[in-house]
Design brief:
single chain, alpha/beta, Isopropylmalate Dehydrogenase, 2 domains, two-stranded antiparallel ribbon, 12 helices, about 40% helix, globular, binds nicotinamide-adenine-dinucleotide
Length: about 350
């Protein structure tokens, strides 16, 4: 089990250190884990003038799975776009062919009061969002700026999906739904966009191979509304890169804090990059305040999806549930009057709960 560890910037180093304690504990328990650590994002720029240094990409390529913290920070905001930390993320996803992004929005019963919605609307929430990650308007060409015939500046991007790209993510969505409640909702904007009309046709065609999964379609504006109106109607949502970007952030707030939510980005062979959904949180970096649970839960997803060791994933998730049940709370998930735990103490508690 070769894991590349890319802490990144800001709280990335702190939360990955806590996940590292879990890795160390599992190794001592006999799992054959090897790790290599490398810089990415702003740290990559500091080390090698590149947000994704070649040496880092090489380490990620020879690993079976990658654990990433977060990238970005005020120090790097004035760099030209191609050197900005986020480019390191886009580049590694593209280089490794990580086309399927899995984002669970799961509400732990202990955290019902942290959700922005009423307990009766969200308790028991368990949604999986499958977002396509390597296509769509974020990558389509042409893009750029120009001056039009009347002398006004214009900015333009191209929303683009090919049939094989849609088929690949649709199959992925159906497979995930098969392992859950067998309900898949495909989200698009087929009333307006040609890209979405093709998307809907292809998803509908793929559904013929998955008669055991109930498929529905929803326009993205309605999906955004339904997620706050009645989120428990969803089991698995499959959608394109941009719609998925927005809906998964919306869904994350239903689950309380973004400090709780892991993600996985997988290639066709289940090699994956695992990371919390949040960013580098410069406002709390270096203060022992960050919640490390999203990163630790990302590690659990790694064992579930890349190493197909559901037993190890279950064990890590059970340890997280135990520390929550014991009342441990970092500031982001603490309700008024609850005591607050630091990043390192939370990591130590999870390791203790593993035994
Ligand atoms: P952010 O996710 O870093 O922070 C948003 C808010 O949530 C902040 O108040 C922060 O303190 C809090 N927060 C985030 N993670 C937390 C955790 N684990 N525990 C407790 N609180 C937490 O988003 P932002 O402030 O918009 O962006 C900050 C930097 O992160 C920017 O440079 C941005 O580009 C980058 N970013 C990176 C990623 C990534 O690496 N995948 C994702 C989003 C943003």
């Amino acid at each position: 089990m070769k894991i590349a560890i890319l802490p990144g910037d800001g709280i990335g180093t702190e939360i990955v250190a806590e996940a590292g304690k879990v890795v160390e504990r599992l190794r001592r328990d006999g799992l054959p884990i090897e790790t290599e650590t490398a810089p990415i994002g702003g740290a990559g720029y500091d080390a090698a003038r590149q947000p994704l240094p070649e040496a880092t990409l090489a380490i990620a390529q020879r690993a079976d799975a990658i654990l990433l913290g977060a990238v970005g920070g005020p120090k790097y905001e004035t760099l030209p776009r191609q050197l900005r930390p986020e480019q390191g993320l886009l580049a590694i996803r593209k280089a490794l062919g990580l086309f399927a992004n899995l984002r669970p929005a799961l509400l732990y019963p202990e955290l019902v009061s942290s959700s922005s919605l009423k307990p009766e609307v969200v308790s028991g929430l368990d949604i999986m969002i499958v977002r396509e990650l390597t296509g769509d308007i974020y990558f389509g060409a042409p893009r750029g700026r120009r001056v039009n015939a009347t002398g006004d500046a214009e900015g333009f991007d191209t929303m683009l999906y090919s049939e094989p790209e849609i088929r690949r993510i649709a199959r992925f969505g159906f497979e995930v739904a098969r392992k859950r409640k067998r309900r898949l909702c495909s989200v698009d904007k087929a009333n307006v966009l040609d890209t979405s009309i093709l998307w809907r046709e292809v998803v509908t065609a793929v559904a013929k191979d998955y008669a055991d999964v109930e498929l529905s379609h929803m326009y993205v504006d309605n999906a955004a509304m339904q997620l706050v109106r009645n989120p428990k109607q969803f089991d698995v949502i499959v959608t394109g890169n941009m719609f998925g970007d927005i809906l998964s952030d919306e869904a994350s707030m239903l689950a309380g804090s973004i400090g709780m939510l892991p993600s996985a980005s997988l290639d066709a062979n289940n090699k994956g990059l695992y990371e919390p959904i949040h960013g580098s949180a410069p406002d709390i970096a270096g203060q022992n305040k960050a919640n490390p649970l999203a990163t630790i839960l990302s590690l659990a997803m790694m064992f579930r999806y890349t190493f197909t060791r559901a037993d190890v994933a279950d064990r890590i998730e059970a340890a997280v549930r135990k520390v929550l049940a014991d009342g441990m709370r970092t500031a982001d998930i603490a309700s008024a009057g609850e005591g607050v735990t630091g990043t390192r103490q939370m990591g130590d508690a999870v390791v203790a709960a593993l035994s």
